[in-house]
Structure formats: structure tokens, C-alpha cells
């Protein structure tokens, strides 16, 4: 508790408090506000507004619940947000085209727009046979191989690369291509069902996926290719996660489990292309990006094939073995700063992503939810899904400063066991480690996305299944969940759905 006081005290200089955030005016008060609660008789001060003053005050009853802007940004920023939204939704076309500000797609790609993956700014989904759009457009496969020479090993050890791309197909499988080019292949999923019996006899059927690639367009994959499936995560709150001071997150890390609680979270260390140094990874399912900007740059390059100032590769993820792709026309232009998306447009879409607002809590005061919160803490879920932080001082997005926020994540890597392992290292992260997913807004997944598929690859069809997949450091919490009464399990799920 003393340690937490140290880093909270360092934020006292952030005194521009809004009415929603005027909760603690002293260092001691701020310290107490960030400690996990022990009182479950009522909701905590500020808990109704998980994004602080930036929380959306608009309706959560329709599929636009994740698409509203920060509740406290200046009126002048509304235009920036709307312009960023337009770029986020824009369909890119192949080059050359008459629309010079929108060409450069591919030649190989996974989607034509950001919106195609982050549907309504929410979660993507695995392909399903009875969906109207039965495809993997909001899900893709990352590809890599182990380092084979000293240069590759050095790039990894210096954190300048997260992984070594597959020699022919690059860092991810592109299942679409512009006219005249062949797609790289198609992801195929086979599910094997396995039954879990809970303590009261309830049977839950989990589905374990097995992944393969079919219809390879450029020859065989490297025999040692490592494959990792990824579903596009929901978008709200990214700017607030970016605003958490690094030392707050570092103080939650316990890589050697010195406190012997079975939880040994650690940060991913990644190279910032913007700042040219190693930084804390925050974004992506294995915390492979240090900023919203770098996450956006990577998505433009890998998913859409659009070059930018930090990823100046107009051929996207094409490799030296894909000659036709490398020699295809591209959309670079002096009008777009020598890339396919200009610095200005990239800044606008980044601002949009940073300011997608976290929705207001729902039914937080119901007894069922409060008792579920107690169970959430009691069985140890809050050990990784750490409830709250206070944002720090920012150069931009000043309205996101000094906010008490409730993301329910520590942004650290945790060993999740064999069941969820993809076997593919990414930066510091091993093949068994994943970043703790933020839980804010999770209860609106059905409303926004029309489904309740969770975890990195959407294998869990609801929150109960997602919990039952937990292993490794979270096995004790998972086992405790199994041994709860049905009533207490439903209370815990009700609490998660209220977030």
C-alpha cells in the first residue's frame, strides 16, 4: 500500500479536475482511491463513469454505443473526431485511381477499411457458416518463424522487431488481393468440443480450435511456421489506456512472483518508431505496440496495405519472394507526404481512435451486481484485471489528463496456460502469454457487435466459457469459479456484464 502511494503522489500536479473527477484532493485521498475496494455494499465513487469525465453520456441501447467521442473533449475537437471517423470508415481502392487520396490498397490485404475489422468500433468475430458475411474479415492469422541468423537474433534482442516474418508470406496471412493478384490463402478452423463439469453438475461445452491455411497462393509455408489467430478487439478507451503513466503499470508487475500469489505479470518491451527507443507495450493482444499511433500504422500497413510515415512500405506486407506484389502500382504521392496516407489523415484517424469513449456503467447499484463484484475480487480476478488507474500529464488530448478510470486490466503479460497458448513469441511475450484484456464495455458486445465471442480468437461463445478457458497464472481463479454455486457464478457474470 505504501508503494502505491508513491506513484499516486507523483500525479498531484494534475489538478485540472472536472466535476466527475473531483473525488480526491489530497495525495492520501488519491492513494486510497486507487486501492482495490473492500466494501461491496455499494458502488465506489466515480465507478459509474469508467472513463472519468471522458465517459460517454450518450445512449448504450443501440450498436453505436462504442462510437461516441470523449464526453469532455472541447467543442473544437468534435470536427477532428468526425473527420477521423470518416477516414476510419473509408474504403481504400487499388492504385492507380482517380481518387488519389484513397488509392494504394494492397496489393494483398485483409480488409479495405478499419471499420471492416472493428465493426461499429467493436469486436470482430471468427467466421461462421450461418453468418451473412461468412468470412474472416475481422480475424486474421499472424505468421512468424524462429530467428535463423545473428542479424535476426539481434533485432529481437534489441526489441526492434517483435518477430521474424515467414519468408514468403510475411507477418500475417492476407486472404484478399486486388485485381490481377492472388490472395495468400484462406484460414481454416476445425473445432473440437470438450466438456467441463462444474461443481454443481452443470456441464459446459468448450470448443477448442485447430488452425490451418488452405489454398496457398505462393507455395508452401516454411515448415516451422508459427501461427497465431487474432480477432479485432473493441476500440473504446484506447486514449485513456495510453495516458496511464508507465510507472503505474510497472509497479503492478511481479515477474518473479515475489509476493507468492501465483500471479507474475510482466510488461512487454517494444520499439517505438515514433520516439526511437524501447517503451512499454500497451496495445494489441500481446501488448506489441506502445502507442495508438503505432497500432494504427501497423494496421494500415498489415491489414490494408497502406504506407505511412512510420511504415513507408507501399507494398504492405509483401515479401521479396512476392515480386509481382512488390512491382505493382502504388498510391504514394507528394500530396500525401510521399506515402499512401498523409501525416494529417493519419493524425486524424489516430485522434479518433484515442477518443472513442468508454460507455457509462449500467446497473452498477443492483445487489446482484454488487455481490458479483465481491465474488470477482474474492476468487482473484482483480489480480490481473486491475480495476483502476489515474491518467497522467499529456502533451495532446489534454482533456484525458488526470482522470480516474476503470479499465479492469494491468496491461501486463500473463501466462494463460496450455489451453490458450498459441506457441508464438511476440517481443518479450512467450507463446503462452497474453496481455490482460480490458473489461470496460464488455457487457455491450452483443448490443454493438451482435455476438458474444471472446478471447483472442473468439473461441469462447460467452463470458462463462471465456473464464473456463483461463489457465496458467489464472488457474486458481478459474478453479474457484468452477467451485462456486450456480447462483454465485451468475452474480459474477452479471457484474462483468455491467462493465
Would you mind describing this structure in some detail?
Mean pLDDT is 91; it is low at 1-27. The chain is globular. The longest helix has 13 residues, at 77-89. It has a two-stranded antiparallel sheet with strand order 1-3. Strands 2-6 form a two-stranded antiparallel sheet. The chain has helices at 2-9, 27-34, 77-89, 114-117, 150-157, 238-242, 246-250, 292-304, 323-326, 343-354, 367-378, 445-449, 463-468, 475-482, 486-498, and strands at residues 108-109, 139-144, 176-177, 186-197, 203-214, 226-231, 269-272, 277-280, 389-390, 404-405, 413-415, 433-435. Helix 1 (2-9) packs across helix 2 (27-34), helix 3 (77-89) packs across helix 10 (343-354) and helix 11 crosses helix 15. With 499 residues, the protein is an alpha+beta fold. It folds into 2 domains: 2-71 and 244-266 and 355-498, no CATH class; 77-234 and 290-353, no CATH class.
Average pLDDT taken over every residue: 91
Which outline best applies? Answer: globular
Would you tell me the structural class of the helices and strands? alpha+beta
What fraction strand?
Answer: 5-15%
Q: Tell me the Rg in angstroms.
A: 22 Å
Count of discrete alpha- or pi-helical segments spanning 4 or more residues: 15
**Any low-confidence stretches, pLDDT <50, length ≥5?**
1-27
CA-to-CA gap between the ends?
26 Å
Order of helices and strands: HHHEHEHEEEEHHEEHHHHEEEEHHHH
